[in-house]
C-alpha cells in the first residue's frame, strides 16, 4: 500500500507510522529521517538543506520533494510506503500526485489521525524530558514520575522543552491548520481520506487504523 499519514502535532504520527509500516511490511518515510540521512551522507540535496537550516530558513519545497522522490525510488519502496510529514502543504501534495502519476502508480489512502485540539495541548504541554538522557520521557498526566521533577530511571532533572509550552503548541497547531490541513481536502476530493480517532491506547489506535485501511483497500 502507498499511504500518506496526516494529523496535528501530538497525534502520535511517528509512533503509529512505525507500527503501521511494520504491520504492512512497507518502509516508513519521514521528513525528519530524509533530512538527517541526506545531511549525514553529504548528498547534494543534504548540503542544500543544511545551508538553509544553518541560515535559519525553511528548506524549500523543491529540495524536500527531491529527497522524497529519491527515497521512494529505492527498492524497498517498490511495493509501497508510508509517508509521514510529507506532503506538508498542498504544493507538495500536487508534486507528489504528479510524481506518482509519472511512475504509473497512485496512493491507496490518506490516513487522517483526528485529535481534539485541547487533547493535543494536554499531550504535548504535559511532556517532561530528562536532562541527562532525552530518551527518558514522562508525562504529568499519562506517565507521571514517582517523584515530581525527577527521572525514575537515572534521577536526573525533568524539564519542559521550550517548544512544548502551551503557547508554542497552539502556534504549531495554527501552522498545521493553515499549511497542512488543506491537503486533507485536496485528497478528499480524490476519495482517498480515511479519518480515525487517535484517542486511546497506542495499540487501540493501530488496530483502528489497520481496520480502516483494510476497508479502504477493499473498497
From TrEMBL:
AMP binds at residues 31, 36, 57-59, 85-88, 92, 161, 172. The keyword ATP-binding applies. Residues 30-59 are annotated as: NMP. It is an enzyme of class 2 (transferase). Residues 127-163 form the Adenylate kinase active site lid domain. It comes from the Bacteria. This is Adenylate kinase. It catalyses: AMP + ATP = 2 ADP. It comes from Streptomyces pratensis (strain ATCC 33331 / IAF-45CD). Keywords: ATP-binding, Cytoplasm, Kinase, Nucleotide biosynthesis, Nucleotide-binding, Transferase. One of its GO terms (molecular function) is ATP binding.
